[in-house]
User: Fold Amidase domain-containing protein from Microctonus aethiopoides.
Amino acid sequence: MCTSIPNQKPDTTANMMKKLLCSLLRCTLVQIHCLFDYIVTLIFSFYYWGKANKVPPVDDDLLLDSAIVLAEKIRNKKVSSEHVVTTFINRCKQVNGLLNVIVDERYDEAIEEAKEVDRLLARSTDINTLKATKPFLGVPFTTKESNEAKGLLHSMATVARKGYRSKEDATVVASVKSSGAILIAKTNIPELNQWVESRNIIYGQSNNPYNTTRTVGGSSGGDAAITAACGVPFALGSDIGGSIRMPAFFNGVFGFKPSENTTPLKGVGMRDVDFTSTMAEAGPICKCADDLIPLLKIIVSKTESRLKLDSPVDLKKLHIFYQESSGDLRISMINAEMRDVFMKAVDYFRDLTGSAQKIKLPGSEYSFRLWRYWMTREGVDFKSDITNRTSRTSATAEIKKLLTRNSNITLAALLKIIDEDFFPKDKKHWAEEVTNNMREYLLEKLGDNGVFFFPSSPFPASYHNSYFLRPYNFGYWALMNVLRLPTCQIPLGLDSEGLPVGIQVVAAPYQDHLCIAVAKELEKSFGGWVPPSIK
Ligand SMILES: *[C@@H]1O[C@H](CO)[C@@H](O)[C@H](O)[C@H]1NC(C)=O
Ligand SMILES: *[C@@H]1O[C@H](CO)[C@@H](O)[C@H](O)[C@H]1NC(C)=O
Ligand SMILES: *[C@@H]1O[C@H](CO)[C@@H](O)[C@H](O)[C@H]1NC(C)=O
Assistant:
């Protein structure tokens, strides 16, 4: 509304008055939003008073190792794969009662596979070849329920598919398995992956390992929580609207969304072919930045030549850009601690490189609307998928079922269907033009040696269900799906309430290695992932 006043118009008095009124109105709206957020937090904190818990500290330091360190130890027979896999499985069993993140498991089969790895290693003479062909040999991992894995549940957390088991692996799950990694379990998601909290009718609600009154985020919520709780060294997620980076942030671990069209999507969600024009990518979630490149190489195996994952990065020569707020009025204001840690990260890189330029992406204030528009171009039919593609539901039908107590979908899914049926759509021309202009603007700045620091979220993981009152707050992540740029979610330690904080770092297409180089440096100077509890 206000922002549509063209800047070029001469500043007549009338224009200036209009601008002044607009900024006054904006200020008032921001203040009202802040007050609203304050009251929401207050009410929820009363409700959850005294109910908080967190996961116990680990009793075996092996659980703290990165995936590549574990792989190295297994290869050099310092420790057997059987021991590693068993230790992680025991940790999963120890924390899952509290977290409710594991929704299906193959523990016995995984231990058998680990023994097979140990036998293979016992008779191998050429460890270097094994390292090249199977870099994660014997290392356990999880993947979200929505990524197909042969024999395991793939209900998409929707009642109409309850009990459905995959007949084959998603391409990307198969790639990770062929790197030698051992799948031990599948983890919780929102219904059809379409909400910011991992809660559904089939598996219930997942809890944050740092504070069980808080959400794990979505949709790779179970993956990020079990990684942060040391139940696995890494997990395989997918991201169409922040689904890797949001839970990575809420659970204080690294999450990476690769460049567009670099990851195979067959078997990710209900896609039965590889989508090419999409905001979605598969990607890794892990505790240690050193794991990102090796994991990414596996995940993008067919397109790796487009990326420059082995190119060295001279951090001192990077061009740094940043923006402190998207300006989207739907989204809560960024709280003081988040802003503080954001500016510390920017300042750290300002010192390192000699400069950091503040920019404003033209159109970032429409982050949610743009994402909502691009979701309509995905070729995914939510209203059909939720019936397991046997028919197509509608808002009217679902509201009727709700009133007659016959509903078997989540509130989040109902709201999505209501939004599809009853709320006006944005114009194609408008949305595509704003997106293209914004992308061009940012790519022109970034070139092939720039990174963009962008906030992750207004605040750390909030109380369960409070997101129904803040449904747009994932816009900071979603904007990077709209722009289809490689983006790393980087943990920067904990806030005063003991909840993880962090930042997003973005690069131009195929410059994924720049984000990851920054992630490694920030991990070194800010501490990266911090365990939920320390002995
Ligand atoms: C969880 O959060 C609440 C509210 O911020 C806090 O009072 C409580 O101490 C936290 N619990 C843990 C285990 O950190
Ligand atoms: C859901 O769809 C799949 C694939 O078409 C089918 O095999 C399955 O039987 C359906 N129903 C359930 C409950 O899984
Ligand atoms: C859920 O709703 C669908 C659509 O009405 C119906 O076909 C299905 O039988 C219901 N499933 C259960 C388990 O209630």
Remarks:
- The longest strand covers residues 487-494.
- The radius of gyration is 23 Å.
- Residues 13-47 form the longest helix (35 residues).
